[in-house]
Amino acid sequence: MDADDYPASNDAKTETESKRIVLSEFSGRNSALTLDYSPTGQTLAVGTWSGQVQELDVTSGKGSGSALPSFRNNCVGVAYSPDGKLLAYVGGSEFEQGGDLSRTAKVMLWDVTAQSLRGDLPGHESLVTSVAFSPDGITLATGSADKTIRLWSTVDGNSKAVLKGHTDAVWTLAYVDSDTLVSGGWDGTLRFWNPDTGTAQTSVHGHDGEILSLAVSPDGKTIATGGGDWTVRLWSTETRKQLATLKGHSGSVYGVAFSPDGKTLASGSGDETVKLWNLKTLEEFGALRGHQSGISAIAYSPDGETLATAGRDDSLILWTMSGTR
Known about the structure:
The chain is mainly β and about 325 residues long. It has no helices and 28 strands. The chain has a 5-stranded mixed beta sheet with strand order 1-25-24-23-22, with no helix packed on it. The protein has a 4-stranded antiparallel beta sheet with strand order 2-28-27-26, with no helix packed on it. A 4-stranded antiparallel beta sheet has the order 6-7-8-9, with no helix packed on it. A hairpin with a 4-residue loop joins strand 19 (about 220-225) and strand 20 (about 230-235).
């Protein structure tokens, strides 16, 4: 790949404050907490602090389809299946006083085509924090504050395996490919798993504190993690060793996302900024400023033209990215 194919280096930082659309309907306890684009890019799934889930038409910014069953509070993870026919969302509350805590640990599977609930998957014993579909869409992986990862069949909703190894809450996970699942958590470890056998492969440590966000590059060769130590770290999926540490944030990194072309990494932080990193030079070349409080989630549209960011300032911002590459 030629150097000209990559974003500009750090000496030409980009500001794109004017190139944004702010969706203001997410306010108060209904502020956005988690995001995912549908494979077509026409719909954005949004989970909120109040436990509500909406599918937004990205053109109009309005809700589309039927109202999805909501949680009592805290929808902290949403994910579309690779074919866009299913939407999984997770959450609950780990702060429930009395009663059966498992009742507030929720994994929901929504049939996007039929606009109906496919299933409510029980099993986790505390807040469900993260969710990801396998590349073939047949398996759903969920991570929880109960320190486990569960694998579910999307065909019948049955539990396929329980993965144990983390010593604290599992906070983020993703499939590298059909043979490898990777997870990060409050124990500070990045763990690799064989989802077919349900066995642990490798555990590595690099962050000085918890891992709060994780993403896999489009080519499957690199993992990015964001941590409570204010850094972004890059890892090789082949050697499973750390490649680089990206410094510049002044707060915990709650979201990381690779651009679809694999040239740029975006990271969102509690310091109210989204930083853009050139993955060839490993330098920051831009920053998106517009949120008035910490950023809780980020997601690239499938075509790479838009970056969605959710903030604790009750705003959901759609940034035009074509001018930043």
